[in-house]
Design brief:
About 50% of the residues are buried. The longest helix has about 30 residues. It is built from 32 helices and 2 strands. By secondary structure, it is an all-alpha fold. The protein has a domain of about 300 residues. Belongs to the oligopeptide OPT transporter family. Keywords: Membrane, Peptide transport, Protein transport, Transmembrane, Transmembrane helix, Transport.
Length: about 775
């Protein structure tokens, strides 16, 4: 967490707060006291010092959530209103469409949950102006827009505003296998893969939501903003005014880098000075997909810069930066060192290649039922990766297992109680205890009041006891239905994945959740372990790429969805939304999102097919994600034992998992003996993950990403705490919201989201025939 200002729990008097304000931000203090009324009567001082408490550094999770989040609750407020369902479904539709569009961009962007929260508030407040005439008026406008309606809407919208991994598989099947499952089978597959993770929570949700140390730090800004908007209406109006001005400016500005003047998406002095230099393109270029590393390029397009660095802790940014520098060194070193025949292939690329550097045509090795034919494979040859892609797979594997070991080394005391239930004696004791108090008779009313370890003294947990928990059998029903539907779809689509492998994939997801949930809950960091899952599936079911994709879908996507729902359950605990209401919002949002994900995926694949199949794509559309997913499915699922096994070209890639198991240990041991070195700040999982971050996509955004993050987290948060507390979250939401609105409009207006694209006329700043940053165009040579 940020190191802003230490405030003693007893320092609650106004004079002490004013003193803290004066010491922390003397310029802002001087501005406030310059008025004629003086300090003691200036309401703006109260407003300013009140915001300081948003950024207190506290010694424990319990202090943090009780001192920075309000613990009051009104149980009479209801989230079940017509406007809550109407606005929730409307924003769910918007979020699902935007998320799918972003997935096919050169730089994958996530829909900003804070933006959805702000929009939900604005629309909710607008409904309060509907005349309450008669039953219809009171139905449309039941009164003040309350915080529980607001949370209900936001959770529904954010549940839909994700790109289901299943749409990636469906896109691959359409683009590379000329197979298009019927609408019913496709949508049911999406729903089952999304909801399987929810089913797992029937036995896990209490372990990772109830305990106070399971902080879920990424939910704290959302909870804080909910309270800011509803507990102080005057301040809310000021913040919304700033939000809309910034949002409007970003909407207008983004027309320039996205459409009129794309050169501003990656201004490289080196490329402008040496437009025919190959090395400059690879090192300094990065405004086009798979162009280069973007080193020292300046991106003015917030679509690619994003807003994550404005909210991530400085420690996380520090580890990301280390990984970024290592990535540049590794990528350039292995390319010019010609490791794995690097110079035979493009500098970057996520598709497969033949040994001579031409693109690999997977249909040449597939026989009936999309199964690899050994004779055809021997005649055509084994596939190769671009070396930057292979290096990325290696370091990402290191990061996957390093994440597990990191959480064990640094946070074992926080999670060890989670695994007590695994002991047979503990299970037996739990069974007899539950049998005695009637907990297993879900059809009957039970008087059991749960006491959960790790919740002692937590008013948020205590406050939720007045609401009924979502019954475990709800989750169990979702789990069984998802398993049955998923199994049916697996066979109906003739993927070649046997039933036993399907069930093992689901079990892997469940087991990974046991480690990744506390990791995400405590540190706020998570990276989807797709490559490791693909490796396991490839060695279990060999020679079947489509089967590998289905295995990956259920072993990986279910994990991600479970983590999202756990975060929402924690948010509902912070905001006192009943668990059953949270469950309802997520189910509706997930169903709406899956359907619209499928609709948008079909539209984009149909209208942008040639671009999605090209290695470089454009600065508007890119198939990098589906290309990578397909390439790894062919590599792992088709010929994994030949290229990743003993004696294979890329045998080091799976060995990366073993390296990750030991990577955090030296830092952990050294910190025990030399704590002053602060080696506990080193997170090898983040570093390893970012060491492969630049292998694909548009990379010109990293310099502004880190500089804006440094400005926000190192300067504003430490030196201007009041300004940071007041405006950082609102401005972040406004930037993200403005980008999402203009991307939505431009996608359908000029980028061909539902038909023909209309490019801005060719000129010096819009070099659509090459790299927009005017580096030497290498992918076309």
């Amino acid at each position: 967490m940020a190191e802003i200002v230490q405030v003693d729990s007893e320092a609650n008097s106004r004079d002490e707060k004013i003193s803290t304000f004066r010491e922390k931000d003397p310029e802002a203090y001087a501005e406030k006291v310059s008025t004629e009324s003086g300090v003691n009567e200036d309401d703006s001082i109260d407003e300013a010092i009140g915001d300081i408490t948003d950024d207190i550094v506290l010694d424990s999770a319990l202090q943090l959530v009780t001192k920075t989040l309000d613990v009051t609750d009104d149980p009479n407020l209801s989230p079940y209103t017509f406007r809550a369902f109407f606005l929730g479904m409307g924003l769910a539709c918007f979020g699902a469409v935007i998320a799918e569009i972003f997935y096919f961009k050169p730089q994958t962007i996530l829909v900003n949950a804070i933006f959805l929260e702000i929009i939900a508030f604005v629309l909710g407040e607008a409904t309060t102006y509907i005349p309450r005439w008669g039953p219809i008026g009171r139905f449309l406008n039941p009164g003040d827009f309350n915080v529980k309606e607001h949370v209900f809407i936001t959770i529904m919208a954010s549940s839909a505003a994700v790109c289901a991994l299943g749409t990636e598989q469906l896109a691959v099947q359409s683009l590379y296998y000329n197979e298009t499952p019927n609408a019913g089978s496709a949508i049911f597959m999406l729903l089952s893969s999304q909801m399987l993770g929810y089913g797992f929570l029937g036995v896990m949700r209490k372990l990772f939501v109830y305990p106070t140390k399971m902080l879920w730090p990424l939910q704290l800004p959302l909870a804080s903003l909910f309270q800011s908007l509803h507990l102080n209406k005057a301040l809310a109006k000021k913040r919304l005014r700033v939000f809309w001005w910034v949002c409007l400016f970003v909407i207008c500005w983004e027309m320039i880098p996205q459409y009129i003047f794309p050169l501003t998406a990656g201004i490289s002095i080196f490329c402008l000075a040496g437009q025919h230099n190959e090395a400059f393109t690879y090192l300094f270029g990065g405004a086009n997909g798979d162009e280069g590393l973007g080193f020292l390029s300046w991106c003015m397009d917030w679509q690619y810069v994003g807003t994550d660095s404005l909210v991530l802790p400085l420690n996380t940014l520090f580890n990301q930066f280390i990984g970024y520098i290592i990535c540049i060194g590794l990528t350039t070193g292995i390319y010019w060192g010609n490791l794995w025949n690097a110079k035979t292939f493009p500098f970057m690329g996520q598709v497969l290649f033949r040994a001579n550097g031409s693109e690999y045509n997977q249909t040449e090795i597939l026989g009936p039922d999309n199964r690899v034919d050994e004779e055809l494979l021997d005649a055509y040859g084994l596939p190769w990766f671009s070396t930057s892609n292979a290096m990325s797979l290696l370091v990402l594997n290191i990061g996957i297992t390093a994440a597990i070991v990191h959480i064990i080394c640094w946070h074992w005391k926080d999670i060890r109680s989670i695994f007590v239930w695994i002991k047979p004696s503990a299970l037996k004791a739990h069974y007899y205890e539950a049998k005695a108090d009637g907990r297993y008779k879900f059809w009957a009313k039970s008087t059991y009041v749960e006491k959960f370890p790790g919740t002692e003294g937590d008013p948020h947990f205590a406050g939720m006891r007045r609401y009924k928990e979502a019954p475990t059998w709800w989750y169990f029903f979702v789990l069984v239905a998802s398993l049955v539907i998923g199994l049916i779809c697996t066979y109906q689509q003739k993927t070649g994945l046997p039933w036993w492998a399907f069930l093992i994939a689901c079990l892997i997801s469940f087991l990974l959740l046991a480690f990744y949930a506390p990791l995400y809950a405590i540190t706020g960091f998570f990276y989807q372990p797709v490559s490791a899952v693909q490796m396991i599936g490839g060695f279990m079911v060999q020679g079947r790429p489509v089967a590998n994709m289905m295995f990956t879908l259920y072993a990986s996507n279910s994990l991600v969805q479970a983590l999202y729902m756990l975060g929402d359950l924690k948010l509902s605990q912070y905001t006192k939304l009943a668990p059953r209401a949270c469950f309802t919002a997520q189910m509706i949002g997930t169903i709406v999102g899956a359907i619209l994900n499928w609709v948008m995926m079909n539209s984009i694949v149909k209208n942008q097919r040639e671009v999605l199949l090209s290695v470089e794509g454009t600065n508007i559309w890119s198939g990098q994600n589906v290309q990578s997913y397909n390439a790894q499915a062919v590599a792992w699922g088709g010929v994994g034992n030949k290229i990743f096994g003993a004696g294979g070209t890329y045998v080091m890639v799976p060995i990366g998992l073993a390296i990750g198991l030991v990577a955090p240990i030296p830092f952990w041991l050294a910190h025990k003996y030399f704590p002053k070195l602060r080696l506990n700040e080193i997170n090898t999982s983040i570093i390893a993950t970012w060491s492969g971050w630049l292998s694909v996509g548009i990379n010109s955004s990293l310099l502004p990403y880190f500089l804006w993050g440094l400005f926000s987290q190192a300067y504003l948060r430490r030196k201007r705490a009041v300004l940071f507390a007041k405006w950082n979250m609102i401005v972040t939401a406004a930037i993200g919201g403005g980008v999402q609105i203009i991307v939505f409009v431009l996608t359908f207006a000029v980028f061909g989201g539902s038909g023909e694209a209309h490019q801005f006329p060719l000129w010096w700043g819009n070099n659509i025939e090459g790299n927009v940053d005017r580096c030497k165009y290498m992918n076309g040579s």
